């Protein structure tokens, strides 16, 4: 809708000016028909023949124009006086058409040219020889074929390379007429207009004259259009959209009643001019200003530029996320909540001597370098230290503002675990060796291993097994072999920690049992773990069911078959099958009647002796040996 207003204003201006803007009788009005361009019979005012005897065509008192021919490097042309200044921009327009005197001209003829030039030193004469002026510049040239026999209007902007005093138009066929079917080319021109080119130019600046496109609230916006040239009137209107938006600009207002102002642009205080019309530039918006300039010859030339009015009320608030990096250190990524243009974002990581403190008094110092940008990441933090993020915002339109936020010391990560497996082995001397292997974590952790006596499977004691020193810190496995015997309860304490999390541990009570002999006669060792009731923290071995209460068959059982368990006075909650390495797998089961359960064994189990652990809902633990064949 507002674009239509802009267009209507320009059309109004077009109607107010002389659209033809004819210079030096550019309409080629003639008082005679025929030979009218040489000095002896000059009936086309201000125009003379540059060579030959050009013809005045048309209707006297109506429309007349010039007709010229050329062949064999000879022909006719017209000229008029005009003061062209070196380096000045001009705009020339004219109507033109071209024909030949034969019905089927060849390519050579059709490639002959029609020319518009500016020159100095031309002397009018009736000779058909193409003259050589003292200085000449071609500003337009086209072939006969390209122009064609229908009238068309040509508009050409150009810059005079030298001072010239004449405008010169003529056709040129250098080819011999006789060898080209006696052909000649014919050029007709009319309505020639010349005007110094109108240039629209502008930029924005402040009161001091410094060019800028970002302004503060309340700051005057100046538009400098001093480099616009040859304008006698100008038009200004304003459009806007929120800063950061990619939507189309919306029309706001125009200067004056219809946007047009008489005179040259110069330097204008847009803020004051539009305030007088009760329109004000508001912070948070990007403004588009359209400037059109014109004169009595050129309706308008348009230019568009934008500027922004920045906000001076920007919050330093930010959000952050803490993660544990793969190397086991804390990484913190902070993101500014307000990312308004023209605002600088300043970030620093500070260490303090007190958890949660952000004051200067508690600050030890800055960690690392200052970071800039809307989003930053600090790396290499440790949970043994105290930190806060200091975030400042500032800009040309606002003074420093900051926010300080303390960071949490501990950062968790997915799949965190302190668990481990225990596997046995032995040697010919009858001593027992066990190896503990930590479950994997997705980040780097430190490991600490130690082994203690666990009377009755309880893991609260601190009596070390002699000869087994603590093992630390990078190994994810640990082996203990000194003074270990079968059927004795021990527990292994496994602790992990890194820069993300403090110490966490798992204690696992076990004993090594012999499940028969191997083929070579050596013992087949297996690990039996103690089950601790989660409610009482007491060994579940104290709640073992008697053999009379539990029956298991078939045993041995074939891999892939089902085990049937009959239990009196207990309801089954979970079943686990544990191999000799300590690896445990939960087995699916189904209740067949009030006392009987079927446990499914898939065919992946190898032959050997296994420990079956049955956990009942009342806390009772049942441990049975199962032989898979």
TrEMBL record:
Pfam families, per the entry: Por_Secre_tail (PF18962)
Alphabetical list of InterPro entries matching this protein: Secre_tail (IPR026444)
Record has Cell division as a keyword: no
Coiled-coil regions listed in the entry: none
Origin: domain of life: Bacteria
Keywords associated with the record: Signal
Key word DNA-binding present: no
Secretion system C-terminal sorting domain sequence ranges: 552-628
Endpoints of the signal sequence: 1-19
NCBIfam families in the record: Por_Secre_tail
UniProt-recorded name of the protein: Secretion system C-terminal sorting domain-containing protein
């Amino acid at each position: 809708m507002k674009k239509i207003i802009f267009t209507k204003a320009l059309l109004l201006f077009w109607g107010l000016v002389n659209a033809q803007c004819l210079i030096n009788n550019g309409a080629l009005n003639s008082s005679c028909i025929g030979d009218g361009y040489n000095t002896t019979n000059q009936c086309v005012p201000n125009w003379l023949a540059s060579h030959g005897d050009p013809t005045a065509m048309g209707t006297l008192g109506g429309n007349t124009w010039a007709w010229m021919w050329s062949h064999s490097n000879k022909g006719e042309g017209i000229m008029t006086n005009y003061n062209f200044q070196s380096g000045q921009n001009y705009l020339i327009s004219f109507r033109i058409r071209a024909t030949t005197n034969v019905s089927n001209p060849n390519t050579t003829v059709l490639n002959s040219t029609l020319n518009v030039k500016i020159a100095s030193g031309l002397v009018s004469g009736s000779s058909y020889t193409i003259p050589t002026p003292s200085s000449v510049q071609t500003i337009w040239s086209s072939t006969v074929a390209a122009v064609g026999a229908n009238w068309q209007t040509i508009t050409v902007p150009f810059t005079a390379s030298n001072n010239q005093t004449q405008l010169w138009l003529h056709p040129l066929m250098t080819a011999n007429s006789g060898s080209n079917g006696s052909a000649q080319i014919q050029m007709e021109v009319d309505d020639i207009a010349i005007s110094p080119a109108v240039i629209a130019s502008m930029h924005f600046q402040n009161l001091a004259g410094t060019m800028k496109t970002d302004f503060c609230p309340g700051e005057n916006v100046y538009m400098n259009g001093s480099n616009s040239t040859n304008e006698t009137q100008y038009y200004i209107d304003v459009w806007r959209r929120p800063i950061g938006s990619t939507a189309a600009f919306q029309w706001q207002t125009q200067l004056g009643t219809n946007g047009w102002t008489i005179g040259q642009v110069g330097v204008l205080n847009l803020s004051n001019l539009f305030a007088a019309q009760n329109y004000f530039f508001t912070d948070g918006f990007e403004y588009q200003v359209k400037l059109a300039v014109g004169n009595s010859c050129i309706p308008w030339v348009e230019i568009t530029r934008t500027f922004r009015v920045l906000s001076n009320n920007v919050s330093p608030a930010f959000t952050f996320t803490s993660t544990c990096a793969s190397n086991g250190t804390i990484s913190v990524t902070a993101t500014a909540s307000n990312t308004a243009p023209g605002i600088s974002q300043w970030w620093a990581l500070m260490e303090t001597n007190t958890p949660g403190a952000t004051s200067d008094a508690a600050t030890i110092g800055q960690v690392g370098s200052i970071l800039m940008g809307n989003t930053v990441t600090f790396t290499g933090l440790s949970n043994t230290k105290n930190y806060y993020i200091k975030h400042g915002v500032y800009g040309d339109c606002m003074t420093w503002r900051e926010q300080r936020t303390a960071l949490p010391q501990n950062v968790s990560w997915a799949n965190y675990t302190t668990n481990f497996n225990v596997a046995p082995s032995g040697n010919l001397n009858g001593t027992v060796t066990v190896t503990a292997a930590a479950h994997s974590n997705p980040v780097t952790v430190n490991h600490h291993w130690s082994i203690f006596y666990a009377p009755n499977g309880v893991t609260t004691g601190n009596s070390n097994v002699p000869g087994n020193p603590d093992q630390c810190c990078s190994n994810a496995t640990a082996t203990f072999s000194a003074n270990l015997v079968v059927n004795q309860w021990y527990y292994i304490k496994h602790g992990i920690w890194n820069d993300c999390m403090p110490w966490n541990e798992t204690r696992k009570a076990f004993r090594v049992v012999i499940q028969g002999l191997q083929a070579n006669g050596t013992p087949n060792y297996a690990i039996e773990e103690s089950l601790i009731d989660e409610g009482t923290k007491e060994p579940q071995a104290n709640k073992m069911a008697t053999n009379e209460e539990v029956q298991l068959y078939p045993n041995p059982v074939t891999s892939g078959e089902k085990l049937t368990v009959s239990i009196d006075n207990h309801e089954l909650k979970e079943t686990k099958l544990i191999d000799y390495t300590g690896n445990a797998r939960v087995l699916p089961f189904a209740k067949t009647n009030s006392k009987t359960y079927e446990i499914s064994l898939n065919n992946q189990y190898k032959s050997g002796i296994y420990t079956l652990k049955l956990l009942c809902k009342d806390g009772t633990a049942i441990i049975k040996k199962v032989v898979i064949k």
